[in-house]
Amino acid sequence: MFKKLYTICFTFLLLLTACSDDNGVDTGANTDDDGAMQEIAAEDRLPLFEINTNGANIVDEPKIDAQLTITEAGNITHTGAIGIEIRGSSSQLFPKKQFGFETRDDANEDVDVSLMGFPEEEDWILYAPYSDKSLVRNHLIYELSNDMGRYASRSKLVEVRINDAYNGVYVFMEKLKRDDNRININKLKEDENSGEDLTGGYILKLDKADGFDETSYTPFNSFRSIYEPLNAQAGQDINFLYDDPDAEDITPEQKTYISQYVAAFEDALASDDFMDPAVGYRNYIDVDSFIDFFLLTEVSNNVDGYRLSTWLTKDKNEKLRMGPIWDFNLAFGNADYCDGGATNVWGYKFNERCPTDVWQTPFWWDRLLKDPTFVTQLKERWTNLRASTFAENNMIGKIDNYIALMETGGAVEANFNRWQVLGQYVWPNNFVGQTYNDEVDYLKNWISDRLIWLDGAIEGL
User: Cα(115)–Cα(122) distance, rounded to whole angstroms?
Assistant: First the structure.
């Protein structure tokens, strides 16, 4: 059944790209781009990423050689070699592709560099908003998370050209990985298989499996929870993928430790004594990180939240943490299935609405919300955030700033001249506006309604 559903979705999305080339890049000139851009002052334009592949097609593995030039306010701020590939899962089937790239030196070896003022690293992402016609959903939620003191990928709005062809507005982002300036946890080495060394750091994911079969979870790439997801009706399981150390590098001892640690947490949470400070779940998790993850996911009603693109970390001698957040392009009302567009439902209750979906939410959140102490902490955090990061005027103000930045530089017009999707349904839009302003107004109104609903719903917990 799962394979059948996957095939149907895959075929539907494939139809969207039937007329695009391998890279989703128009090899002809953008009709308005050159003329429009000449009338805009250099300092008003979004940063421009120009990628030259010398005519080669960008593919999904392996990375191909290319040159990158970044221009900011009319000045070239970076030029150098890169390796670049198409990235993403279902988004790969959209004609506007997103890319992962690594910066390289003159010898074509990976090299850490600082791009756009971000801390030095070698792995980067150019995310391509396509079904998100506001262009800003991911950029917004990542900024909100960072403002809360929870690391999320640093991001900036940019424009991209590939082989002299304009390819639209992108979000330049950091790839999530272990690094002092990204996911700042201990690097676990292959010879660290006992004692204190074995306790961290680990990065896990709840996500689709890599490869064509996105449900292919094996003992090599993951471990399985013994607890079935609540309300699931198709025999689904919860699987934790190894990210760092990855499936190739993690040792048997490390697999045993992290799987047993997560199992101990789940056992404690499921037990009758789950609230007991001596033996309960708090001995295993960083509660504050779970609360912040919950609130970021709920404020946006991320339909993929809790079950896909969900990251967890376990540092040396530390407890399990939720986050960083990732991939919110279908959040803030941009999904027409499983109440993804609703402002008046709990995101964590996804399984009740879609009990046959392949990927389900773990039982954790229902159980945590049965602990009065957890609920009290959550309410206090919500009240604090509503007066600051989650204040409506703050969130709407950020959106207004993004829009002004893009419109002043002509980027909105150029993007939708290149990708003429306004007024058209693009999977899985819950709302289809006839104009860009319609899309932005929908996003703002959705946020306003969501905040009002959450005020009452959280108070009623």
Answer: 9
